[in-house]
Design a protein that fits this description.
- The model has no long low-confidence stretch (mean pLDDT about 85).
- The chain has a single domain (about 5-165), classed as Ribonuclease H-like superfamily/Ribonuclease H (Nucleotidyltransferase, domain 5, 2-Layer Sandwich).
- The longest helix is centred in the last third of the chain and has 21 residues, at about 145-165.
- The protein has helices at about 65-75, 90-95, 100-105, 120-130, 145-165; strands spanning about 5, 15-25, 35-40, 45-50, 60, 80-85, 135-140.
- A hairpin with a 7-residue loop joins strand 2 and strand 3 (about 35-40).
- It is of the alpha/beta class and about 170 residues long.
- Helix 1 runs parallel beside helix 4 (about 120-130).
- The protein is built from 5 helices and 7 strands, in the order E-E-E-E-E-H-E-H-H-H-E-H.
Length: about 170
């Protein structure tokens, strides 16, 4: 991935930025491949950072593209930043709204405590980055017109990236 902050992006811990993440995959024989696109927005919905998976071949359905995207961005944010992840992946939103201390206390088990989270290693890595970089992290769905517009644009880009990975171009 190539995530970069705009040169004029002034991030500090007092302002929450919005990380819009969209993913897509393709349905073709063999291992499914997925792609993502991200846009970091200011509180005024101005783009202050951007990234995509490009030609990186990520294996799995579209949900597997979410974690490399968020991990890469969190590693590049200034120390002490506040970021709100905006996605349409309900289970990810639900899990990121759960306190990291709760995930750790249950050894990254599901809420019923019987099974490990499907992406427990990724959640652990996210929690470690958030703690090490003193970040504040929350997650939700797009709320207003501008957020939905940005989400639609990055989703279309992720969709096109996934289509280019597919030899037959069949995209979900």
């Amino acid at each position: 991935m190539s995530f970069s902050l705009n040169s004029n992006a002034a991030l500090d811990g007092s302002v929450t930025s919005k990380l819009v993440i969209a993913t897509s995959d393709h349905k073709s024989p063999g291992n499914p491949l997925c792609a993502f696109a991200v846009r970091l927005l200011s509180k005024f919905n101005e783009e202050i950072g951007y990234g995509e998976s490009g030609q990186e071949r990520l294996e799995g359905d579209h949900t597997k593209a979410f974690f490399p995207a968020v991990i890469e961005v969190l590693q590049k944010l200034p120390l002490g930043s506040k970021v709100e992840v905006i996605s349409n992946l309900s289970y990810v939103i639900s899990e990121l709204c759960r306190p990291a201390s709760e995930r750790r206390a249950t050894c990254y088990s599901t809420r019923n405590g019987k099974d490990l989270l499907g992406d427990h290693a990724a959640y652990r890595q996210i929690d470690e980055i958030v703690e090490a970089r003193s970040l504040t992290l929350s997650a939700r769905r797009p709320l207003d017109y501008e957020e939905r517009r940005h989400y639609k644009e990055v989703h279309e880009l992720a969709h096109n990236l996934a289509a280019r990975l597919s030899p037959v171009g069949a995209v979900s």
